[in-house]
Each structure stands twice: as C-alpha cells, then as structure tokens.
C-alpha cells in the first residue's frame, strides 16, 4: 500500500503548527529539522496535495504501515520539546478518518531507512522480494518488509520459510492436477487467432456455443438473471438463431438433452416432421427437397424450447426471449456469418428473400440491366434497401438524392449494422404469447408464405406439432457413464457402438499413432454400417431392437474380432446393404453447466446452410429444408448419398439425424457435456473430442484443436483435415490457447500408416464442429472448476464465470 503525507494548507488548523519553522501551541515547543542523511524523491499527488513517503520509518514502524501520515514533511524530521522519548502522531486514512496512535518510546525523528532494496546484494534483494510477497499473502501488516534490524531480518527469514513450505504443500497438488486429464491447468495468455481453440475457466457456470456473443448471453442468464442451465440454454439457442441464422433458427428443429443435479434425465425431441401432404414421389426431382417451399418440414425448435422452460426453467419466458428481441432489432454482422455469406454468395443472390436479408445497397450509374432488375423485383425499393443497409428505420432517407443512380447489392460484411425487423416483431409476440404465437397466431400467415414458395406446409401442420419426450440411452466407456439420445437420432447408438469397439482396443495404451487411428477408422466403418438400419421408431419396426443391439457389448466383441491390423476392406465387409447417410451442415450445438450441476446439451438445425434458402416475409424466419434429410426415392441426396427405405418420406415422420448431444458422468457426478454440428461428421467429431479428453488426457481446447478424420463407410474414403492427402504433409492446423503451436506431427504419420493399410485418403476435409464443457475436480473429487472450449472451425468462443 502506498502511504502519503499530507502537505498542510493554511486552513489546516488541526495539523501541527507551521512545519517549516518553530511556533508555540499550548505551551509546547515544536521544531522541524532536516535530516542530514535524508535522500528523498517526493511524488506529488494532484488531488490531495500529498507527497509520497518512500523511505520513512518511526520507531521501526514503516510509513507503509499507515494509510496517511498527516503531520509530516517528506524532507523534515520532527521533534517535540526536544525530547527523544515517545510521542503521539495524528494519523488518518485516505478517507480522512483521524486516529490517535501512540508510538513506543525510542527514536522519534523521521529519517531515511538505513538502506533500500535496490542497494542490497542479489541474495538479500531476492529475500526482500520473497519476504514482501510472503507478508502480503499471509496478511501481516499493510506494507513491504524492510531490513531495518536483525529482528526484522529474522522475521523475514521465518516468513520466507513459511512461504516456501506453503508453495511445496500447495504446489504439489497443482502439479498433479495438471497431469490429471480431467483437471487440466488454467490457461495462460497464449496469443489467440481465428484458428485458436480458447480454453475458458470458471467456478460457477459455463456456456460453450458456436457464437461468442451467444455464449455471453448464456452467462448473463446464469450470473445476472439467476437462471439455471435450462434457462441459459434457451436464451443461447434463440441468440444463435438470430446471429447465425444460416445454421439454426426457430424455423428448424432440435434435440435437447437434460441432466439435472438431482439425477433427473430427459430428452426432448423437437425434430422437424414431414407435412401431412408429403409423399415420397414429390421429391424425385433433385432440387425440390433442397430449395424452396416444398423443402420445408414442420419446425419444432420453439415448441421444444418452450416445453423445456415449462418443465425446468426459472427465469420468466418473456425475459429470456427478450434478449433475442434486442439482438434482432439491432446487431452487428459477426465474423462467421460474414464468412458464410461469402461462401454461399451465389445462393444468397439467387434467392430474393435471402438477398433482402443479407445484402446492402450500393449506388452506381444508371444502367439498363439494373433498371430491369428493379422492375422485376419491385419489393426491392431504394427506401427498403437503404433502411436495411443502415440498420435504421430510414426516416432521414431521401430517394431524390439518388436520382440518376441505380442500386446494386453487396453482401453484408463483418461489423455492418444489421436489423431484422420482421423477426424482431415475431420474437416480441413470442415473448408475450409463448410458442402459440408461432404455432397458432402466425400459423396461417407462415403457411401461406411457404405455399407461395411452392411448399405444402399448412396451418394445421403447425397447430398439430408435438414435442416428444423420450428416455435417454446409456452406455459405458472405461468406467464412465455416457448419456445420449435415441432415434430419430442415430448419433447416440452410433457413438455407443464406436466406443464399445474402441474400449476393446485399449486406446489408452496405444497413444496417438497409425495403429490407434486404424482401429478408430475401422470402428467408424462398422458403426456406420449398423447405423443405416435406424429410423423413426414410430414408423420403422425394429428400431428399438436395433438400438439395443448396437449398445450390446456382444456386437462390439464380434465386430472387433473382424478388425485386421494393417488392413482395410470394401464396404461389403462392414454392412450387407448400402443405405443413405444424410448430412445436416446447417446445424449448431451448445453445452451448458450451471452452479448447481445441472447440464444441458442442445443441438439445433435447419439442415443445409441457409436451410431452404427461403425466409418467411411475414415472420422474418429463415426456414429449414429438412425434407432433404429423408431418403428420396431413387436418387442420392444433396451429399451424393444413396437412398434407404427405412428413412423414406411419410406424412408426420421425423427424418433420421446425426445430431449427438452427449453428457458424461464420472463416479456418478457430472464430468463432461458436449455435442457438435456437421452432419455425420457430428458423430465422428464428438467421438474423437471425447477420446482426446477421456483417453489421451487433453484439456478441452487442445482436444478440440487436434486434427480429426472422418469415415462414414459410403463413400469408402477417409477424410482427414489439416494435411495434404497425397503427400500426408501438414497444412493448416488449429492451435490451443495453452499452446500456440501444439505438436501435431503424429498426424502425418497417421496418414501414411493408414495409406499403408489400404485406406483411401482424401484431404483437406471439413470436420464437424464441437462445443464442450468439462467439470474438473481435484484428486478428492472436490473443488470443482469448469473448463470449456468452443470450436475455432466455426470461430466459436465459450464463456464462464
């Protein structure tokens, strides 16, 4: 603590008499002398007219032991009646509260300390620094330790010894904690880039989402609104639908996996369903299930979020939805949305409704072509375009200023102002009325928007939509209890089979090398072969039996026995018939853990990026193209995958999904919450991030940053990211906030060894995107710390407090 001596003013009647001379007060003689050996460097404090006392002590009391010493001069020594015995000084703290402090008899003059730390030998200077730190840590006094006499030096030594012992006692568990895979050390300050997986840490709550701003929204609900994990997950999901609508919106569907601290488990199936008028023949045309109104299935996300809130929420629904109303009214274009707009530029400009939402006007000289464009698209008025591009209502806009010019459209860019007026109004109504606002009040107008775009969605389809509560599935891995979701998710059963096989391979003894990744690749091929027999249990007989079969260890034993080291086989070795594998890249995932230990994993989707490439004009909602997630007759889907009878279109049916929310328990307590986006790459990415943490001991950020591979059996190819598929040389890799340059050299060796075993390697490949929260505990299972990371592949950033 810094101490200051107040410089007397003329009005300071309560201070000592003039400190620059002698005077009489109450019969007492005060005098001031200048110490001959004093050497000071006063530092003036502008607000209090004070001088910093750097080298002052009184009777072995250092000036740092007081907040403020009033009757003193930084350049004078004080005597009272020429007596060298004890005396009283009027002392005060910085709040001007004065106190009388009696000093012990002894030397009463102010003077410089015998020596300063900078003049000591290296050893003594180190002792001084360590001792000062020890004094502060142990709460002894207010100031630094000064070597004024041998007694003080002995105290310094004792305190230093205590500090050393404390370091040994407290530091050893920290070192061991670092070595423990479930409790990696808190991150340092490594440089962060767009390719860095950032590890965040907190004691009370954590949210890992695709969008950094939405992670913050989730923490705001936990910390500032006294919400629980369910409240936080609801607000975060709605946020992502506003800021990253290419991936998920309330016009899509979701899976919600919940595990409360009291052990309650729940799975809310908010998957989209085929409209009542849907038939498989409608989708023989390769485009009808992808683009436009006919591709739209009945959305379920909002109903599922509302049910979760009714069952488990604490914060008022209106308050949670209100956070996204604000974002829809006015926000900035984020870096990921700006990137996706560039990637899908052609799609944006081909769709009038996407162009309206995601472009801004620029003015150029009049041209025949641009005039013709405007006449064919009369909704694109100059006023509307300007209003959208500025993110305001455009009151001050004067179209006459632009006479002789035409409008062209540029994509919105990062940090552009962005206002979604129609969506904001819809969310306001939802905040007031709940999900009924969409499924009842707006049902007719929304269905008419879809029908005008060539679709078959009716108001009745919306009114009749129901969320289904299902029982989560369980499976084991090396003593851990894993909780996931059953069909219409294929993710849970497929993850269970993959990990059951790899448990037999004893991955923890193999490390990261070609052998372990060969086992992984073969396990993926077998599991995806079995996955193809799954479907909506309400329509596909035997689905429940197939789930039980996939989770049975006997199947894993049989399949593991068919793995041959250093050799792979054609698809017929892994499955008897070819089935479809549908991808849903327009997907997002978030993981939440709160202070009480409640956990939520939500994966939501509009299927392909930007869904049906269609925005409802009456509601502002970007709608899904989930009808392409069905198998459609005799054609491959958008990703070149073959059809499967079990997943064909039927009215009211839910298409099979790869979404794989996962909650992991260790010794009966919460250990990990994770999930991902990216179609079938969700399954393989979640599996590998889980293995990186639970088997290889990575912290969450490194586990996410590590390179991944993907195999879905059809096509018979290993997709490997971060390297050249021909040479196996590393290319663009991701880093962790704990290490800017992790050692991924093993990845090239894995590639070469897989090639030697006969695998076809294709690279580069886009992996799935994973968000994870790990609950780290000390060796006694106590002192919980939350460690979270979001995937840099989608520019994500987790948050914690």
TrEMBL record:
Q: Does the keyword Membrane apply?
A: yes
Q: Where is the active site?
A: 587 (nucleophile)
- Positions of region (Disordered): 1-47
Superkingdom assignment: Eukaryota
What is a biological process (GO) this protein takes part in?
glutathione catabolic process
Q: Which GO terms describe its cellular component?
A: plasma membrane
The record's Pfam families line, in alphabetical order, gives: G_glu_transpept (PF01019)
What InterPro entries does the record tag this protein with?
GGT_CS, GGT_lsub, GGT_peptidase, GGT_ssub_C, Ntn_hydrolases_N
In alphabetical order, the GO MF annotations are: glutathione hydrolase activity
Which keywords does UniProt give here?
Membrane, Transmembrane, Transmembrane helix
Does this entry carry the keyword Transmembrane helix? yes
Amino acids binding L-glutamate: 271, 605-607, 629, 657-658, 679
Q: Which family does it belong to?
A: Belongs to the gamma-glutamyltransferase family.
Q: What is the official name of this protein in its record? A: Gamma-glutamyltransferase
């Amino acid at each position: 603590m810094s101490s200051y001596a107040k410089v007397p003013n003329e009005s300071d009647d309560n201070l000592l008499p003039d400190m620059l001379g002698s005077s009489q007060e109450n019969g007492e003689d005060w005098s001031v002398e200048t110490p001959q050996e004093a050497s000071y460097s006063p530092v003036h404090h502008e607000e209090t007219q004070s001088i910093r006392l750097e080298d002052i002590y009184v009777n072995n009391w250092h000036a740092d032991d007081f907040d403020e010493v009033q009757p003193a001069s930084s350049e004078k020594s004080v005597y009272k009646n020429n007596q060298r015995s004890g005396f009283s000084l009027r002392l005060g703290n910085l709040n001007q509260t004065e106190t009388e402090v009696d000093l012990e008899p002894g030397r009463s003059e102010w003077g410089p300390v015998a020596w300063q730390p900078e003049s000591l030998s290296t050893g003594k200077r180190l002792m001084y620094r360590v001792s000062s730190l020890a004094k502060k840590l142990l709460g002894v006094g207010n100031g630094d330790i000064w070597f004024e006499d041998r007694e003080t030096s002995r105290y310094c030594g004792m305190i230093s010894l205590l500090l050393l012992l404390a370091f040994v006692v407290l530091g050893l568990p920290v070192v061991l904690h670092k070595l423990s895979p479930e409790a990696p050390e808190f991150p340092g300050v490594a440089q962060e880039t767009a390719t860095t997986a950032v590890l965040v840490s907190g004691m009370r709550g954590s949210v890992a989402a695709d969008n950094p701003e939405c992670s913050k929204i989730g923490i705001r609900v936990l910390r500032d609104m006294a919400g629980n994990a369910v409240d936080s997950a609801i607000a975060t999901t709605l946020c992502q639908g506003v800021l990253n609508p290419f991936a998920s919106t309330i016009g899509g569907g979701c899976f919600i996996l919940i595990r409360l601290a009291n052990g309650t488990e729940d799975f809310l199936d908010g998957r989209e369903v085929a409209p009542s008028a849907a038939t498989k023949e409608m989708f023989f045309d390769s485009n009808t299930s992808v683009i436009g109104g006919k591709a739209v299935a009945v959305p379920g996300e909002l109903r599922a979020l509302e049910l979760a809130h009714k069952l488990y929420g604490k914060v008022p629904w209106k308050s949670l939805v209100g956070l996204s109303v604000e974002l829809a009214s006015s926000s900035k274009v984020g870096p990921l949305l700006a990137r996706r707009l560039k990637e899908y530029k052609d799609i944006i400009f081909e769709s009038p409704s996407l162009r309206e939402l995601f472009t801004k006007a620029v003015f150029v000289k009049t041209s025949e072509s641009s005039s013709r464009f405007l006449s064919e698209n009369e909704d694109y008025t100059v006023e509307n375009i300007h209003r959208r591009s500025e993110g305001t209502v455009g009151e001050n806009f004067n179209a006459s200023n632009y006479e002789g010019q035409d409008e062209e459209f540029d994509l919105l860019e990062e940090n552009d102002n962005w206002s979604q007026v129609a969506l904001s109004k819809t969310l306001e109504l939802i905040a007031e009325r709940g999900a009924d606002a969409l499924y009842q009040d707006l049902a007719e107008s929304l269905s008419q928007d879809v029908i005008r775009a060539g679709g078959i969605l009716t108001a009745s389809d919306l009114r009749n939509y129901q969320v289904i509560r299902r029982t989560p599935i369980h499976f084991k891995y090396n003593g851990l209890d894993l909780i996931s979701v059953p069909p219409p998710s294929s993710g849970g059963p497929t993850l269970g089979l993959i990990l059951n096989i790899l448990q037999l391979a004893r991955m923890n003894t193999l490390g990261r090398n070609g052998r372990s990744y060969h086992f992984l690749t073969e396990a993926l091929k077998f599991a995806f072969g079995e996955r193809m027999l799954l479907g909506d249990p309400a329509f596909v007989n035997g689905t429940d039996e197939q789930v039980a079969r996939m989770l049975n260890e006997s199947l894993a034993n049989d399949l593991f026995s068919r793995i041959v080291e250093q050799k792979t086989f054609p698809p017929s070795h892994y499955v008897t018939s070819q089935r479809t594998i549908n991808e849903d890249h327009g997907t997002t995932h978030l993981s939440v853990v709160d202070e009480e230990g409640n956990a939520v994993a939500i994966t939501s989707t509009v299927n392909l990026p930007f869904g049906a490439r269609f925005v409802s004009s009456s509601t502002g909602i970007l709608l899904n193209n989930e009808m392409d997630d069905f198998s459609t007759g005799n054609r491959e889907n958008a990703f070149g995958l073959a059809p499967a009878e079990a997943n064909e279109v039927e009215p009211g049916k839910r298409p099979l999904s790869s979404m794989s929310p996962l909650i992991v328990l260790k010794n009966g307590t919460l250990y990990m919450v994770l999930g991902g986006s990216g179609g079938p790459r969700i399954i393989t990415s979640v599996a590998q991030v889980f293995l990186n943490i639970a088997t290889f001991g990575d912290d969450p950020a490194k586990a996410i940053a590590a390179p991944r591979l993907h195999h879905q059996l059809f096509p018979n190819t290993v997709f490997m990211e971060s390297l050249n598929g021909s040479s196996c040389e590393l290319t663009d890799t991701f880093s962790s906030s704990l290490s800017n340059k992790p050692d991924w050299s093993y990845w090239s060796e894995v590639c070469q060894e897989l090639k030697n075993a006969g695998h076809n390697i294709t690279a580069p490949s886009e992996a799935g995107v994973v968000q994870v929260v790990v609950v780290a505990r000390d060796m006694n299972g106590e002192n919980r710390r939350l460690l979270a990371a979001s995937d840099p592949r989608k520019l994500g950033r987790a948050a914690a407090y």
